[in-house]
Amino acid sequence: MNEGLDDCHVGLVFFSSREAKGAWFGNEVSALICRRNDEGIRVIPVLIDDKVVVPGLLKPLARRSIDQFEQIVDAIQGVDRKPKVGPTTATRRLKRFTLRIANAGEGVIDLTARLDGEEVARETGVGLTAQLSRSYAEFIQGHTKVIDRGPAEAQHATLSRALVDLGDALGGVLFTESIGRTLSASLKDIGAAEGLELCFEAADPVLLALPFEAARLDGSAPALRSGVSVRPPSPSTRSRSSSA
Q: For a disulfide at 11, which of 32, 34, 81, 151, Cβ 3.0-4.6 Å?
């Protein structure tokens, strides 16, 4: 008996509604529970009838009825036939919308949009205004100096309005014509199992410093929409090599 308790990998304990008065039964169950806690062997309560009272230490375990032969065999073999849980939002598929920005002359840029690596739109000779030639930090510093007087609510409203204006101006340049239409369609296609990653690439440090998160399309900033994430702007090796 000791060898059986010491060498087994799985222990089946059969319970009925009749009280188990034998001391050996309790000792054997205790020995199996100890091995389960110390060594991780499987202990499977098997119920002979529906009026069984299972000991408290065994209640957390999956119980099987005596007539569930296949389920008992699965439990002995450690087979789990429960359906797999579907993917969570943390592992959802991300589509990638990449906008490559290249200098095409004084105050002029070319734009190329790719969706998951495939080119989907292109615009050339787009004018870049002087307002957009400054970095986001310079923009904030400049407007803060202008609105540093008066009530705090008024300052906040003025800065918010300036940010919206900047977002509209930047969106009008980056998301112009076919670029904007393609991005708008991609945003509408975002489902529960998908998200959209916005990526911006440029070889010019001035272009990389643009406040891309503020750019607006169809009345709002895509970067702030649900399901959208923005990858930090990165240098474009292709743009750098083509301008060399």
A: 32
